[in-house]
Amino acid sequence: MTEQALQIVRERLPDYVAAVTTKSKGGFWVCPLCGSGTGKNKSGAFKVQDEKWRCFACGRGGDVLDLLGEIEGLQGFRDQVRRAEELFRIDGSMTAGAAPVRSESKPEPVFISPETMQASFNHYDQNNFALWLVKVFGEEKALELAFAYGLGTAKHWPGACVFWQIDEAWRVRRGKVMLYNSETGGRVKEPGNMVAGVHWLLGMRERNPEPCLFGLHLAAADWSKPVAVVESEKSAIIGAGFVPEFIWTATGGSGSLNRSILEPLQGRRIVLFPDLGAFDKWSEKSAKWPGVEVSPMLERRASAEDRAAGLDVADYLLREHFSTAN
Ligand SMILES: [Zn+2]
């Protein structure tokens, strides 16, 4: 199975979980393996985050293939992949660059209209992430960054923001609604994961176009600078504020780094800035990709405490900035 097809399989985790079990309390699910979360007062212990799941009761976890394997008793990776192709109707030979082969039941992807996106460019006073950006950079710089990246405000949760994935042709591929704390800039993860796709919110979850890098439109518009790639949208915006020598983009998740997402940047100098803990994974993945470097910045400078805290690129840049400013 190609990396691209595997990525599509991994992204089916939320759909698969919804099909095999039921919701429990507080953003958790009833564990389809050990049944935790079914009791009267028991809150669930089975959690899905991005492309991973974990049950805190029975200790099992992994990606969608691991779950499929557990439920259907398929131990080998090959058997799991074969079953996933069948179950999710995915063509495993799909390669980057080739048009993805879709089954007849998969509807055409729908791009988000510019009007929908533009309607979100307001109410920054009710947008926790924007309020925090103002605290970090001051109003003028914060607004400049918000406009450059197309930061939107979402009504889905009070204080939520939306990060739009705008591609090299200025098509809006996806929108990701997230909730941050306006004081600390940290993610709010209670009661649930507090991340929602705009397609899903619009009732079009099956019609997501392929993802693109967050900030790709900025990279496409300026070929004079190398492109930095980080994991989170927040790190990209912080990077753009502090290190303007690069155009900063984000994959939107550590597992979302793949060759096809970097394809629109072919011929450019690309520097990956992995978060602590993702260095080996990103280095291994990108080893054979031409023009792609991996920055050892965090890996080299991290202390034991940083590692324990899981420092990310944004944390690091903020710390550097505020320690030199004082
Ligand atoms: Zn369990």
UniProtKB/TrEMBL annotation:
It holds the Pfam family DUF6371. InterPro entries: DNA_primase_Znf_CHC2, DUF6371. One of its GO terms (biological process) is DNA replication. Residues 127-276 form the DUF6371 domain. One of its GO terms (molecular function) is zinc ion binding. Coiled coil: none annotated. This is DUF6371 domain-containing protein. It comes from Prosthecochloris vibrioformis. The lineage of its organism: Bacteria, Pseudomonadati, Chlorobiota, Chlorobiia, Chlorobiales.
